[in-house]
Amino acid sequence: MPHSEPLPQRADVAVYIGRFQPFHRGHLALLRQALALAPRCVVVLGSAHQARTPKNPFTWQERAEMVRLALSEDERSRVRFLPVRDYYDETRWVTAVRDGVSRLLAGEGMPSHAHVTLVGHFKDATSEYLHGFPGWRLTPVERVAAVDATAVRDAWFGAGADDREAALAALVEHLPPSTTAFLRAWSALPHHEELAEEWRLLRHYKQSWSAAPYPPVFVTVDSVVACSGRVLLVRRGQAPGKGLLAVPGGFIEQRETAYQSALRELQEETGLALLDTTMRQCLKATAVFDHPDRSQRGRTITHAHYFELGERELPEVQGGDDAAQALWVPVDELTAFEDQFLDDHFHMLDHFLGLTEEPHT
Question: 150: Cβ–Cβ under 8 A, 6 or more apart, which residues?
């Protein structure tokens, strides 16, 4: 693990990247170290534009507010926020971060050659991205407070309504008072109980596999079906992700190929049943989506199939199996629903349809 080093000469701007779900005392200590290195700091809010989940309960705007509330008035005046989506592609993500920071600095009249230092803590393999910014000075710092956001979320979502205040009291050493107050107010919103119920379901789901000799790896299939400028989606009828939009798909069967499972799941969830010869002619591409963090259920690898049906009349569809609804959505409207998609399904559509050809925030 890299050792902290004496604070170097001040840079023009410090960059601090995190998810802050929620913002805790460890984050605050690191942010203040970043502010000691430069007159201003860009806080990059990762996992932006995601649907609310037990792992990502807060929007980027709510997280920015949590950060602001924990800072002094002078510190707030020196902090800028940059929301960046998860591209599940490190090269694209790094480009989005660098371009976003450049736009922010240009908007404040700073030169393109401004001296940037990237501040971060190396906790495990998930921190390796800090090495991906050539041209920026990397300032590694030691962990200041032994606080883990996952443990905070588990304690918060795991407490029943009658125990919620006690759970917050137990977290007082880990959270700035402003974050504790924010969570207390947020607990009264409908989102809290919905996500707490999903948290319990996911916890039970993972516990059911705890006796396996090795951590399970799940294999799924998905189908991106485009027709006449629209794409076929389902609205999930069950948790996880109940009510969210998704690409039709599911788990591969023991005696099926990935292609056979994809067609079966497509028909079960949407009722789409074209001739096999038609579907084979319309299959334009396949891709494997295997980012380790793409699914909350655990390590899940999906084989996605892209079908282009051409400019024909839209086939009739109807939600079935665990899909509450099947619908044809105009491709040019998909970006407006980005924060309503399950897991990485928006990025699956982006891969095949080019929805965000240029990284932007």
Answer: none
